[in-house]
Design goal:
The protein contains three helices and six strands. Helix content is 16%, strand content 38%. The protein is α+β, with helices and mostly antiparallel strands. Strands 3-2-1-5-6-4 form a six-stranded mixed β-sheet. The chain starts with 7 loop residues before the first helix and ends in a 12-residue tail after the last strand. The N terminus is likely disordered. The radius of gyration is 19 Å and the shape is globular.
């Protein structure tokens, strides 16, 4: 008869394999055009300031499909370009093919519009 001892490593491996993945908690971001341009994709022309950490995520794209209808009804393109709104959401990495190569790039998945952004929060934007 075989007897298996529980080891911390085995428990950790089983926990990782069995537990569902947990989505990142929502945070608040100021997303905007940062003024950088390039000639080959992927281009780092947008960035997002994480208001909780102060970290700027460069080269991020935004997905607004998860926004409620009332938020989608706002004229978001100009507001997002200029960093005029604080967006609630999370950053996730997505793989996409650009020019025949695969890249894993950050995406801000927006789930709501929190408020108007303050001038001090728009410092990383080119169109302050």
């Amino acid at each position: 008869m075989l007897v298996f001892r529980r080891t911390p490593l085995l428990v950790a491996i089983v926990s990782i394999c069995v537990l569902p993945s947990v989505a990142a908690a929502d945070s608040s971001y100021v997303y905007c055009d940062n003024g950088l341009r390039c000639v080959m994709a992927p281009c780092p022309s947008n960035s997002a300031l994480d208001l909780a950490t102060g970290k700027i995520i460069k080269g991020v794209s935004i997905d607004i499909e998860e926004l409620p209808q009332q938020d989608k009804a706002l004229d978001l393109s100009d507001k997002l370009y200029a960093g005029k709104v604080v967006v609630v959401g999370s950053i996730e990495n997505r793989t996409q093919t650009l020019n025949g190569k695969q890249y894993t790039l950050p995406w801000l998945v927006a789930t709501g519009i929190e408020r108007a952004a303050r001038d001090s929060e728009r410092g990383h934007c080119s169109s302050q």
